[in-house]
Amino acid sequence: MKNLTLNMEFLLVLFAALTLALPASAAENCQARKQTDSNSENPPPPTGGVGTGGEYVSFESPTAIRVAESGNPEPTPTELNDSCGATVTEGSASQAKELAMTVLNKINNLRSKSGDTNQTAGLNFLHLGGAAGADSADNALLDDSRLSLFSFTEYTKRDREATASSGGYDQESNAITLGFDYRVDNASFAGLSVSVSDGDSDLDSHLGGSEVSSLMLGSHGAKYWDKHYISAFLAYGAIDIDVNRSTANDTFSASTEGDYWYADFTLGADYNYGPLRLNPSVRALYMRGEVDSYTERSASGSGAVRSVNAQDIDSTVLSLALQADYSLLQSWGVLSPSVRAEFNFDQGDAYKTNGQTLNDADKSFLASISDQSDEPDSSTLALSLGVSAQFKCGLAAYAAYERLLMHDYMNKYTATLGLRFELP
Known about the structure:
Layout: H1 2-21, E1 33-35, E2 49-50, E3 57-58, E4 78-80, H2 88-110, E5 119-120, E6 123-124, E7 147-160, E8 169-185, E9 188-203, E10 208-225, E11 228-246, E12 251-269, E13 271-273, E14 276-291, E15 294-295, E16 297-298, E17 304-308, E18 311-326, E19 328-329, E20 333-346, E21 352-359, E22 365-372, E23 379-391, E24 395-405, E25 410-422
Antiparallel strand pairs: 1-4, 2-3, 5-6, 7-8, 7-25, 8-9, 9-10, 10-11, 11-12, 12-14, 12-16, 13-14, 14-18, 15-17, 17-21, 18-20, 19-20, 20-23, 21-22, 23-24, 24-25
């Protein structure tokens, strides 16, 4: 009882300190940029503007298409007060990163952790007795197989609010992951997975949209000892991006692709107090990649289009989390509701765009462009509610609903369903 009190006090103090230490973050306005040409004295609108009749409206694309466009573009020199906007990498990299960040957690939640401790799908059955400790093949919750198959699917909806430098958009995406886990020994696991995702984005005010699809191949592993564990996930991903935007006089489209490498390292511990399990963990996440250069096409064939240089994907995130599960013995197996709080500290920079504005008819140079997105929110909280179930004969299931909190300009909701089966 003394150990329980000390551990609970330690966890409460730790998370209270983290909450107080969270810095207040706000989206920063971009600094002035230069856009120059040698043939005119009249300044063009900011690179984030679109409009008609000389009126320009700043907006943000989730995949980054922000352009200077008018019915009759003229080559001009100018110094812009503000040319902020989301780059192609903001929406596409965010979708790919958020998918990659969830894979390892879901694998761990579905895993049969250790054959000799009867921990399955994140549940500890030793104290439950009954079916959890049965030896017969008909009643066993655990299977002796070393190989397990798993699958999970998720639906995500994002609502990006307008800021001083960028407009808003709505984005929906679906993803599915298939993979296997191999039990190397009673406390070690390794496996492979493949994930695919598709997302559609619509800009506010019907200014355009985008479609982003990605394919990710990953390898994972985990080692458990005593109450502690370490797990890792390494992945390579490819991204395909189709974007479009609209003005009163024309429509524009572009296609490009990119790739990235992703790494996720997690250190955690399990503390069991009867049916209650507490799982604090710390994660470091790294993502590096590039989106290829692209040039827009205008429907009219004579509009002012953007030719955008290749853009880097560069993100580092530190994550601190606490998950609590409570095991309930049922006649068919074990049911475990859970709650999870995860603080994410994003060390990434704003995505930047450099390139040129061209006349689509003859590809003649009109102006240089330099643009960037809002800075990523440096500290956010993801809160999720879930339930996992361990059935007889090695079948496990998992469901969760997650909400993003404490973000300056983004609302995000994610629903997840997962299955795991130990082969006979």
